[in-house]
Amino acid sequence: MTASVALETSGPHPLPIRRPIEPGTRMWDETGLITFSLTAGSAFLLQTMEPTISAVVDEHSTFRTDPMGRAVRSLGSVMMWIYGGEEALAEADRLRAMHASLNTTDAAGVRHKALSSGPWAWVLHTGTFAFTEGSKYFARRPLTAADKEAYYQEVVQLMRNFSVAPKEIPENYAAFETFFDDMVENHLQNTDTAHDYLRVIRSVAPPEQLPRALRPIWRRAVAPIGQLQYFFTVGTTPEPARRKLGLTWTTADERKLRALGRLIGRTVPLLPERLRYFPIAYEARRLERDRARLRKIIDLRPM
């Protein structure tokens, strides 16, 4: 959370204890914004380029057959990490239990385990990148170095909540940047899973329950959304990763992304809170305000 959180003192490197993300943190204020979805694609793309995650996702994920369902479930889970209170820790434990059996062997005979410490941590590391990258394009003002460091210390708390191995957690944001750049340049690979994901988001398949007669209408309706999501995903993916995947990104594309980002960054803050935030985030924030008002009334009661 922040540098002032309680620490576990056992072991040579004290770590924050597991505790829910609290109101007033940057995560609480910004993760639930609808702009979160604009860089979620690049985070997942970077995950599918990690060899173990790619192999496990290739065999076990439903992103090809049920992309909408997978996206909604993933979004709901992430919102629980931040806004679920004590249930956030239960959600983290549920995900670890679910992934414990998600193992596979690739074509080269290499065994991959979803809970291997590096890949498990990489999922959260990509979220850190996506958040800071999103602020560069879609926020009213980019994060300062101090903002990034404060946010990263909240990430350390989140990683502790997910039982990430201490060896996988860089000490500060500067160390994270060095680690992240090395991962992208020297460890991520050009995988079929990554290309499948790009294909899926570009042309989102209709829900399975949608009648066959309505599917052409669906495809025409969502085509612009898919193209925009693909554009945002490629544009917010690091250049070395784009290069590995053979993706083109021109200076004109960059100008267009920055223009769209400025428009979004100025428009979203003007929306009512109910529209600015995803439902779980909005309700959690509203409930917290109600609790604060109740606390104030209780504190001012006659004694």
Q: How would you characterize the overall build of this protein?
A:
The protein is mainly alpha-helical. It contains 14 helices and 4 strands. A two-stranded antiparallel sheet has the order 1-2. It has a two-stranded antiparallel sheet with strand order 3-4. The protein is globular, with a radius of gyration of 20 Å. A hairpin with a 5-residue loop joins strand 3 (103-105) and strand 4. Helix 2 packs antiparallel against helix 6. Helix content is 64%, strand content 3%.
Task: Please summarize what this structure is.
This protein has 303 residues and is mainly alpha-helical. Helix content is 64%, strand content 3%. The model is unreliable at 1-12 (pLDDT under 50).
Question: How is the topology of this model organized?
Answer:
Elements: E1 7-8, E2 15-16, H1 26-30, H2 36-48, H3 51-60, H4 67-83, H5 86-99, E3 103-105, E4 111-113, H6 117-138, H7 145-161, H8 173-186, H9 192-202, H10 215-235, H11 239-245, H12 251-267, H13 273-276, H14 279-299
Oligomer: single chain
The average pLDDT value, as a whole number, equals: 91
Order of helices and strands: EEHHHHHEEHHHHHHHHH
Number of helices: 14
Task: Give the fraction of residues assigned to helices.
Answer: 55-70%
* Shape by Cα distribution: globular
Brief descriptors of the model:
single chain; 303 residues; mainly alpha; two-stranded antiparallel ribbon; 14 helices; 64% helix; disordered N terminus
